[in-house]
Amino acid sequence: MTRFNQDIFLAAGLRTPFGRGGGALVGYDGISLSVPVVRAMAEQLTTQRPDLVLWGTVIPNLGWSNIAREIWLDAKLDPTVPSFSAVLACATSITAAFAAAGMIGGDTDVVLVGGVETMSRPSIGLTAAASDRLRALFAKDPAEALKALSSLSPVDFTLPAKGWANRITGRTMGDHMEETAQEWGITREAQDAWAYESHRRAVAGWERGFFDDLVIKLPELARDANPRADTSLAKLATLPPAFDKTSGRGSLTAGNSSPITDGAAGVWVLSAQGRTRLPDGIPTARLVDYELAAVDFSDGLLMATPFAIPRLLDRNGLGFEDIDLWEIHEAFAAQLLANVAALERPGWIAERVGISRDFGHFPWERVNPNGGSVAIGHPFGATGARDLSQTVKELAAMPKGSRAIVSVCADGGEGAVALLESLG
Fold it and tell me: What is the pTM of this model?
């Protein structure tokens, strides 16, 4: 089963090293951090010209609207390439890849897809009330309006709602995830154990060179700054709750949650003809199918992917153990554990998703072999492209016909899941 009328391929793209919030990459904005990635990927093409560019970011910036076009023009590449932007919270660049796949055909064979977030530098805007007040003053008396700027108070300013908190609830994803962790019985010990494994695997991946051809070096940073070789279960156990600090039941900490991160990442979406425009040796896999899901917040702000995964597998006649590789985004260790707990709970898929068949045993040993977002970092707009490229490289080393699931949850009760297949 596939949504496409022709074979669609993903080829591993490039990304920046992911930097710690307030760290080495703090001097970049979303455009300047993306330009080196886009240039490096364009240089891989025989023509240095894709047919289309899709790029996304999540935290708004008043300095631009179509960041994809701004990046492409600042990269000083062929200005006749159409470029537009996409956004779906943490699933922004994986959803952009799905959109690109649907646009393959005719003269469109190669689409450069990606995303970026500079979480160290969110734009601070004015509230609607403060903006209205100043706008009226500028129209009436510009000099008086300039004086009024100095009298603005903290209540007149706002961080972007989609940067840190859900607009409807006014609460962060961490706040919501604390409730989900308690609902699903996800213990602090289990979260710390998964976080430790994420760091251990990411560090091991760097040490054996897995990331070397996926990450371009920047003058300020040559490799991911977040994976910690010196972490341990004992150290993780000492960290205080980061969100629920007062009830005595808080279990999400800075150590078992994805960190504030700056980074940009890309991935290629290609037709069969488009593959000939990339050099041999770039890992490539077939995009077989995908699924988007959305749930009511009562199901959990980050719990849409357990609804999407069974639908995707059922449509393709697959069970859990038919999937050889699982790349599940780790916004929080608790989120990954709760997502899989739902899939494993007897009767949950039949009752909540409406599919009454046995998907079998879930193969935990096949999840995130080179670490996930808790260790690598989570620049919102870049995570989907990072996940896809990492999966494609992992899958390309497996026998022909091996399958992978890439799963990315997103703020707003949404999620995106892809099914990929190895070309051998």
Answer: 0.95
Tell me what percent of the chain is helix, strand and coil, each rounded to the nearest 5.
40, 20, 40
Domains of the chain, earliest start first: 288-422 (3.40.47.10)
In this prediction, residue 2 carries a pLDDT of: 67
Quick one: which of 58, 46, 42 has its CA closest to 94?
Answer: 58
Residue 160: per-residue pLDDT? 58
Distance of alpha carbon 390 from alpha carbon 375, whole angstroms: 14
Query: Using CB atoms within 10 A of its CB, is residue 137 exposed (0-12), middle (13-18) or buried (19+)?
Result: middle
pLDDT for the residue numbered 339: 98
pLDDT at 163: 44
- Which residues form the catalytic set? 90, 378, 409
CA distances 193 to 14, 21, 231, 287, 375, Å, are: 30, 24, 11, 32, 12
Asked if 16 and 216 touch (Cβ cutoff 8 Å), the reply is: yes
How many helices (H) and strands (E) the chain has is answered by: 15, 12
- Residues 71 and 118 sit within 8 Å (Cβ to Cβ): no
Question: CA-to-CA distance for 349 and 352, rounded, in angstroms?
Answer: 5
At 123 the pLDDT is 82
**pLDDT value for 159:** 65
Report the pLDDT value the prediction gives residue 125, as an integer from 0 to 100: 82
Number of residues that this document lists for the chain:
424
Tokens describing residue 205: 């991946």
Q: Can you read off the two tokens belonging to residue 252?
A: 């999400």
Concatenate the DSSP letters of all residues of 11-59 into one string. EEEEEPPPEETTSTTTT--HHHHHHHHHHHHHHHSSSS--SEEEEE-SS
Listed in order, strand segments (DSSP E) in 119-232 are 125-126, 157-158
Give the per-residue pLDDT at 1.
55
Task: Pick out the chain residues at pLDDT < 70.
Answer: 1-2, 159-164
How many angstroms separate the Cα of 250 from the Cα of each of 182, 378, 413? 9, 22, 22
What DSSP string runs through 284-351?
EEEEEEEEEEE--GGG-TT-SHHHHHHHHHHHTT--GGG-SEEEE--SBHHHHHHHHHHHHSTTHIII
- CA angle 85/47/275 to nearest 5° reads 75
Pairing type for strands 284-294 and 414-422 reads antiparallel
